[in-house]
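Internal ticket #5521
Category: modeling
Description: The requester needs a full-assembly model to guide mutagenesis choices. All entity lines are attached below as received. Residue total reported by intake: 316.
Assigned to: D.W.
Attached entities:
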Amino acid sequence: MNKQANPISRRTFVASAGMLTAGFFLPARGLFEDASPVTTIIGEAAKSPVTVQKLRGNLSVLDGSGGNIVVFTGPEGKLMVDAGIDVSKEKIKKVLAGLGKEPLKYLVNTHWHFDHASGNEWVHGEGATVVAHTNTKKNLARQIRVDDWRYTFPPSPAGALPTVTFAKDRTMTFNGETIRMHYYGPAHTDSDISVHFQQADVLHVGDTWWNGHYPFLDFNTGGTIEGMLRATDENVKRVTGKTIIVPGHGPVGNKAQLVEYRDMLGEVKTRIEAMKKQGQSLREVVAGKPTKRYDDKWGKFVINGDFFANLVYRSV
Ligand SMILES: [Zn+2]
């Protein structure tokens, strides 16, 4: 079930994590604006192939364009969960064509971030109805500065905005499958939803789970460590040993891996909370390496241990 990450993109992500570490105590300007991981990640997607992995039934996952994209095919058409980065359009179109001739009917966004939704406009242009949480539409429609990415996202074009939105839950039947969408409440952002293909028992949990990597918390649109833990507890309760769980980033995983992530998040939060309560400053906490025992496993992607400690400190 596991697949290797593209070694080239891994190297670039590690480089961008280093830049994040160098920049995070400094005000965003000049040099660091240029070094935004957003620019790096878009550049990487432009070069990366898009690969496909079969999951179960008519469900597949596409890798190589930012976040993991799930594709569901059948006689009524295709449904995508997330659209990836717009620079991957031609490569994704080719992979979709290889999965069947049926037209694209639906796109569901797990949240508003560019590496999951910047392909919305072209997917919508292919005829797909775009479904998302109301906050995904709200965030895509406006200009947003994400300070920790040192990047300002302009408002999305009208064609990229979700046309069907919901506040809490939405269930649809498509290709004979029951697809349940559920809002987590504020977690990684204020717009995160899960998408559960109930008969196939495949659950896309968006960026509430980065399998094998420290997650990002987007404080500019409502992310919190508390919310991430709440969402992760909910994910753990929802799945069984048979559920195929698609994270926002990292390889497709299972319940045991999800539990390991939940335990890591909980322990890092508890430790940093205690240090902060004792009066330690952000610099002191980061210098104390509170994530040390986890860094070899979790700190080698976009967010390294120092940066994750920084995010958690500011969130407790
Ligand atoms: Zn995200």
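Resolution: model delivered.
Comment from assignee: The mean pLDDT is 91.
Ticket closed.
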